[in-house]
Design brief:
- The chain is built from 19 helices and 18 strands.
- The protein has helices spanning about 40-45, 80-85, 90-105, 110-120, 125-140, 155-170, 185-195, 210-215, 235-270, 275-290, 355-365, 400-405, 410-420, 435-450, 465-480, 490-495, 515-540, 560-605, 615-654, and strands spanning about 1-10, 15-25, 30-35, 55-60, 65-70, 175, 200-205, 220-225, 225-230, 315-325, 330-340, 345-350, 370-375, 380-385, 455-460, 485, 500-505, 510.
């Protein structure tokens, strides 16, 4: 489908690629990875022929349709969301404009008007609309948004509309640059499942490890100006790369030992006439060797740890009877939440449910129309905005922003911290307004670190961070002794960090006192229970057919044997149903017991006195781990038992 042959690309003295070649075939699912600045987006620009390589060629197979979603800055004009989503070719887009113009300005030009509609229909324009609406709905657009002009939408929603256009086009090769940046967690789930069933080839850049692991079957890594191809998803490529590096290190060391031995012989006997020819032979042997390059690791890693803040009280923050609305749009009406020290809570829920609003209310950035926000003893809140520019002043330099802290710090210390976040040399004198998204994210983190809070409120903290930076952030937050409440669509980050989940939906909060997998299991259990109840109601309401029985003579009267046989069959099915029902009830009691004990242990672990008794905290942590495993097993067994009960109940009523 696509062949890249020996391309090179440099910017001034810096070479991004040199003699790079690759091929993409039908059905390929490739993730392009590498640290920030390695040239991933530049390579996409070369593939899309938006830029010219210094040397080499980019060739597409004839009649191949490819579609590209850039990372940022998709255009937004007067066209509506639906018009953009269906404007999959220039001709269709042009016909859409003509239809719109003639419908309003030239209603009397019937013949020309009909010709335009006929051509639009011939190109399948009207068939595109249902497909586009389905995709837009999957991307969390509401039906009332379909006719909104793009210029009225935020940048993130404009990117979603352009993504909908691409998916409606359904190109042979889909090229995506950070497509998950503007998606919430639930939309990301829909999008991932959609791509898992996509028929075309996919080439994508993403810093979302879970997204890559679910989708790709090959990994293409930009490393030291070269492209290295690995089979498997992102995690599998890490294993292969580590094995390759270990092999290369061993081979390099062995060759260096051999070269040293040959060189030693030549140096020792070069001046001795009887062995001069042998010495010369050893030198030629060294020259003929195909030298193994010394392995190098060019991955830039952020190394940092949060300074530990002052310890807060047990209750960190409390909001009571909160009412908040944007105009007539009521987000919360009587909302209550209380957060305790040490919790690492992720807010989840559909787009527009009010997660970012809640984070701003907790941070004091927004003031509720009524209700109380109460900070606990010694609580200091720090807010990491989804929009990094809100935290930074565009006219300042990186160094000036970092120096703007109430803490007593030296210039040397500031430079050290900035260096840890990859602002090195003259980078510290860059203006904020010229920084990339990743650089702004790192600088915003620096500002938080220099004045550390004990209540950290973070909105999409991983956006624009590369994977090494995300891993470093996870490590630091796991060691952080304060309290964290965050929003993220990065499933890997959520799984690694969260110990508590709050689902926000329709102004209501549902708490899950466990990590993300616990939340998923409980949500699935809830859905299964709802389905089971619906199944019972449906079966009860519609079950009028007689029970199945062996073929009987055509007679209006049944024999005693037939009646007895049917009764025995009904009793057998009823007994089986009873066994299933008892098992479900037993498992529900077991789940309730585990959940109760889990809450009790969690409460004990939050008491200061627990840590004054030798070994008690360790014992409770072990018991908590055991209870969590029991709970996970019981939930899985309940799902199986509930499904079997529903099936048995359906057969009894059939």
């Amino acid at each position: 489908m696509l062949t890249i042959s020996e391309i090179s690309k440099s910017f001034g003295p810096r070479t991004l690629f040199e003699d790079v070649s690759m091929q993409i075939n039908r059905g390929d699912r490739i993730g392009l990875v590498g640290p920030n600045g390695a040239g991933k987006t530049t390579l996409f620009s070369l593939i899309m022929q938006l830029e010219e390589p210094d040397t080499g060629t980019v060739n597409y197979e004839k009649n191949i349709v490819h579609g590209y979603l850039p990372q940022e800055s998709a255009p937004a004009g007067d066209e509506t969301v639906l018009e953009l989503a269906t404007a999959v070719t220039p001709e269709i887009a042009d016909l859409q404009k003509k239809i719109k113009a003639y419908d309003t300005a030239h209603p009397d030009e019937i013949e020309h008007h009909d010709n335009i509609h006929a051509r639009f229909d011939e190109l399948g324009g009207y068939q595109l609309e249902p497909k586009a609406k389905k995709i837009l709905t999957g991307l969390a657009f509401r039906e009332k948004d379909f006719d909104r002009p793009l210029r009225e939408l935020s940048g993130g929603w404009v990117m979603r509309a352009h993504l909908a256009k691409l998916l409606t086009l359904e190109p042979d090769l889909l090229i995506l640059d950070e497509p998950t940046n503007h998606l919430d967690l639930e939309t990301l789930q829909w999008f991932t499942e959609y791509l898992e069933n996509y028929s075309g080839a996919i080439l994508l850049i993403s810093h979302d490890r879970d997204f890559l692991n679910r989708l790709i079957t090959q990994t293409l890594e930009i490393r030291q100006g070269k492209l290295v191809r690995y089979r498997g998803n992102y995690d599998e490529h890490l294993v292969q790369r580590a094995a390759n590096e270990a092999t290369q290190i061993a081979a390099y060391k062995n060759q260096q030992k051999e070269i040293a031995a040959l060189q030693l012989f030549a140096d020792r006997f070069r001046a001795k006439a009887s062995k001069a020819s042998q010495a010369q032979s050893k030198l030629k042997q060294i020259e003929r060797m195909e030298k193994i390059e010394a392995p190098t690791n060019d991955d830039k890693k952020i190394k940092f740890a949060f300074p530990q803040p002052q310890r807060s009280g047990q209750r960190v923050i409390k909001m009571e009877n909160i009412h908040f609305a944007y105009g007539t749009n009521v987000i919360y009406n009587g909302m209550d939440i209380e957060v305790e020290r040490g919790q690492r809570t992720v807010l989840v829920g559909p787009n527009g449910a009010g997660k970012s609003t809640m984070l701003k209310l907790l941070a004091g950035v927004l003031t509720p129309q009524s209700g109380e926000r109460t900070l606990g003893h010694n609580t200091k809140a720090g807010y990491y905005s989804q929009y990094r520019i809100d935290m930074l002043q565009p006219g300042r330099t990186v160094f000036e922003e970092a120096m703007d802290t109430p803490q007593a710090v030296t210039e040397e210390f500031i430079r050290t911290v900035l260096g840890s976040f990859l602002f090195r040399g003259d980078d510290v004198f860059k203006k904020v307004n010229v920084l990339s998204g990743g650089e702004k994210s790192r600088l915003a983190l620096v500002k938080l670190l220099l004045d550390p809070p004990n209540l950290l409120l973070m909105d999409e903290p991983t956006t624009h961070l590369d994977m090494a930076s995300i891993d470093a952030l996870i490590g630091a937050l796991q060691q952080f002794q304060g309290t964290v409440i965050f929003i993220s669509h990065d499933v890997y980050f959520i799984r690694a960090l969260s110990t508590h989940v709050v689902r926000v939906e329709s102004g209501k909060l549902t708490h899950y006192t466990g990590g993300y997998q616990y939340y998923l299991d409980k949500s699935a259990s809830g859905s299964a229970k709802a389905g089971l109840i619906a199944g019972y109601n449906s079966n009860t309401a519609t079950s009028n057919a007689p029970a199945a029985a062996p073929a009987a003579p055509k007679s209006s009267h049944k024999t005693k044997e037939q009646k007895r046989f049917e009764a025995e069959q009904r009793q057998a099915r009823s007994n089986k149903l009873k066994v299933h029902r008892e098992l479900v009830q037993h498992l529900e009691k077991e789940i309730a017991r585990c959940e109760k004990r889990q809450r009790e242990i969690t409460a004990e672990l939050e008491l200061p006195g627990t840590y004054e008794k030798a070994g008690l905290a360790a014992h409770l942590n072990r018991e908590l781990a055991d209870i969590s495993r029991e709970l996970e097993h019981a939930n899985k067994e309940w799902e199986k038992a509930a499904a079997a009960l529903a099936e048995a109940d359906a057969k009894l009523g059939a």
